[in-house]
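ENTRY TYPE: paired fold submission
RECORD: A
CONTENT: sequence, then C-alpha cells
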Amino acid sequence: MNHVGAVLGLGNTFAFGAYFLTPLAIPFVLTLSIWTGVWLTAAVSD
C-alpha cells in the first residue's frame, strides 16, 4: 500500500497518453483503410 499514489499517477499518465496518441494515429489508419477501419481499430483496442 506504499505505492498506491505512484500507481494511480502512472495509470493516469498512460490514459492521457492514449488520448493524445489516438488523434495522431487516425490519419495513418485512414491511409491503410477507410473510416470503417478506424472504427474497427478503436473497437479492438478498447
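RECORD: B
CONTENT: sequence, then C-alpha cells
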Amino acid sequence: MIDAGSIPLRRWRQSFRRPDLLVVPGLWYRRWRGRRELARADPAVWRDLGITSAQARDEAAKPFWKS
C-alpha cells in the first residue's frame, strides 16, 4: 500500500495518471509493425535474433495491444 505521507504529493498523483493519449497509439503501431515484420521474416532472421520459429509465430500472433 502506498503511504502518501512518505512521498511528495505531486509524485504520488503522477503514479495514477492515465497514459498520454498521443503515446499509446504510437506504441501500438510500433508493436503491430514489428510483429508484421517478424511474421514475414526468413527463418534465417529468426536464428540471427536467437528465437525459434514457434516463438516468432507466437509473438507475431499477439494483438498489438498486448506487450
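NOTES ON RECORD B: The chain has one domain: 9-61. The CA atoms of residues 39 and 58 lie 9 Å apart.
STATUS: closed
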